[in-house]
Amino acid sequence: MLRMLALTAVGALISSTAIAEIRIAHVYGKTGPFEAYAAQSHNGLKLGLEYATDGTMEIDGEKIVIIEKDTQLKPDIGRAQLEEAYGDDDAHIAVGPVSSGVALAMLPVAEEYERVLIVEPAVADSITGENWNRYIFRTGRNSSQDAIANAVALGGENVTVATLAQDYAFGRDGVAAFKEALEGTGATLAHEEYVPTDTTDFTAAAERIFNALADVEGEKKLFIIWAGGGNPMSKINAMEPGRFGIEIATGGNILAALKAYKELPGMEGATYYYYEIPKNPVNDWLVKTHFERFDSPPDFFTAGGMAAGIAIVEAIKKAGGAEDTEALIAAMEGLTWETPKGTMMFRPEDHQAMQSMYHFRTEIQDGKDYGVPVLVREIGMDEMDIPIRNQ
């Protein structure tokens, strides 16, 4: 009888060990206008987990399981899907979403369930600012990082800028941060234009911008902050802003969007990632592996997803497991880790990932059907005074 009990106990232990797993929920907009961003982010997340675990997809013998949830880019659905991931699926960590508006709806859920949410790639400053809580970490860049990098690239004395952005958190936070950053460069922001996210006719907005800049002396630039379809850059360029001495400028984007950049050789801005820019072992592996598996280069949000995947593995190793959220938070605050962009670091004060950005100039290159963002210089994390906005 004792032998039977002993065997039963051993069997139970073996069974428990065999089914031990680390559950990671990817809650992201698989369907909708940001579908391309979502696919890149998901592929990158899987590649990051693979890279950081040397292909085993295990951490200390525990199998990593990825649970997918589709927000459909709707805040209420995103909130419900995260509640389901933490509650029904008992996810240890969640990653996502694509949209800033959806992310803002999801933040309180992480606090309610006391589980970590790694925001990737939603950008709005308010995510790690006024709406932040201690369970939120972000591997993606925020609006201030975009803005300060672009201000460094575009600003200067005798430069006047107008902005065009989408009328929601991503666009408004982006312009607010850009305006603040631009002040330190000597440039002037003369006009702000906001349009609905699904705008396809930019005639009226462009005319207001042209009127605001027409009589201004010196360099004049229209800085566009845009996500998804609509392509305002090409449509406004077709309206010949050069008649008024206005140059179009924008930050980096996914490869499909860079096709519009081909119309604007010499255009400058700052980007989060382009696969030929970073020179480090992680990016070398990502580029090689992505070409082998997808017959294409890794894109903007592939790098971000990979950064999140590596951060998860490093944090769980440092914390000694995924079960204890407090141990995870302690492990992640101040964590430095290597990504396709080089070293990132979770700032302890607001859990925003500090990271490099890249000042680029667009070139036309043989064999590429898009404008290539060629590196002018790397803008290191120490060069950007990113405000802490959660206090």
From TrEMBL:
Q: Name one Pfam family in it.
A: Peripla_BP_6
Q: Where does the record place the Leucine-binding protein domain?
A: 21-363
**What keywords appear on the UniProt entry?**
Amino-acid transport, Signal, Transport
Q: So which residues are the signal peptide here?
A: 1-20
* PANTHER family in the cross-refs: LEUCINE-SPECIFIC-BINDING PROTEIN, PERIPLASMIC BINDING PROTEIN OF ABC TRANSPORTER FOR NATURAL AMINO ACIDS
Family of the protein in this entry: Belongs to the leucine-binding protein family.
Q: What is this protein called?
A: Leucine-binding protein domain-containing protein
